Amino acid sequence: MLQKITFFITSLFLQKENVTSRVNSLNISETIILNVMDRLSDFENNQGYLKPMTLHKLAKKLKTNPKYLSKIINNHYEKNFSSYINDLRINYILKELEVDESLKKCTVKSLTKKLGFGNTESFAKAFKKHTGINPSNYLNTLKNN
User: Could you tell me which of 63, 55, 57, 61 has the C-alpha nearest to residue 79?
Assistant: First the structure.
């Protein structure tokens, strides 16, 4: 039992050390990083990603600069800004399609607009990258089930 507890504590220490070293490598104060992360969490919880969004728009909304925001997203989420926003949107629509029958009847074009994508092609590309299937095929599968 003591061995498991020691392993658990060591594991927590190493995780914290890893996060701290990643944070320190950004050359941004920890206070700024924590503030931006807190505002990003609010942005996600309020589904701000469903509106058309650019890095500059979001940085302004979060009261930070685009360079810091980009570095924080790259470091924390291990993806670039576009992938971060697209993944939030695709995860959102996949969950909604499970519970909202009316969405299953929507066109890809209407889903594109609902999710804040600039055009159908970028939505379809992000959807396929995330799920491995085209959104139209996915919707057809849902309709047939």
Answer: 55
What's the whole-number mean pLDDT along residues 70-75?
Answer: 95
Residue 117's contacts (CB-CB under 8 Å, 6 or more residues apart) are 52, 89, 123, 126
Quickly count: other Cβ atoms within 10 Å of residue 60's Cβ: 13
Report pTM. 0.80
CA distance 26 to 120: 35
The string of DSSP letters for 18-55 reads HHHHHHHTTTS-HHHHHHHHHHHHHHHHTTGGGS---H
- How many Å apart are CA 76 and CA 41, to the nearest integer? 12
